[in-house]
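Raw record, unedited: Peptide chain release factor RF-3
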Amino acid sequence: MVLRQVVTGSVLAVLSMGSVADTLWLDNGDRVSGKVEFLDAGKLVLRTEYAGTVSVNIARVRTFTSEEPVLVRLKNGSEYTVQLAEAEEPGQVLLRVPNRRPVATQISSIQRLLVPRPVVHDMVWEGDITAELDLKDTSGNEKREIDVDLASSLQHGRWRHDVALDYDRDYTDDVETSHTLDASYDLNRFLTDQWFWASRLRYKRDHLGELARQRQFGTGPGYQWWNNALGRFETSVLASRWWTEQRDGTRDKYDALGLQWDYRRYLFGKRFELFHNAETQLPDDPAVRYLMDAELGLRYRLTNWASLSIKGEWDYLNTTDDTGYHDTTYTLGLGVGW
């Protein structure tokens, strides 16, 4: 299907992308214009205007070029920052190293190719929204489960705004068994390419549980271990103040030290995305050992905008008495990305 898109769109690509495009030649003579994003696991991924993201097996690539410098790692361990030029021999590409003659290299010898991500001066908005509706009748019990997840990120220069929302509502035989809302807003200011200062606002509402409301404000340093076309991984440490309200109206507040992390990795030419994020809190309440919210999932891209995802969520409260809980939820849903 990908090759069919490549063949039918090659002429349109040449006309629409113009001089700003990288170029790829296939072994059947077709030429594709777009923007090289990365090469990994034997797949070369380009972003085109006519077909979105296209993944091509490198065995079908005759040669290709890049207008901007890219990071190239060969299978022998060598690493270069180079521009890529068209090679005469099929299956090769020219590495254009500054102040040196171009070096012809087998495409199959490239282990990984990445395009460095510059500081974002224009505004970039991306995100995913996933909905899951499950209707089932097991052992005479009719169950309905509704789960909506929203994650969105807006970045401009050194600033990044992250918004997340998780809404869950479940019924068993028309009796409501779960009704929760979890919303958060993170403001991150990058001090360098890796270090940033994070601030977080969070609100949790449980319409049925004993702990009816929770509010959090936290701030602290963070470190971005990597952020490239293959994914990202970052961690942060937050000093937080929590405000809680019980079902009977009892209110409390406490301080906590927390560690949070966010990991995302594209697999098989961006067809799959593995994602995992978690937050662990160590409160100053002697009755509470720790709290932890975590999720782990796999997202499969059906199209450039639609996806199918499977996800597991874990919510822990470890206490010295019997008030703790351990909730586990698994969901399968359809999503829209932008």
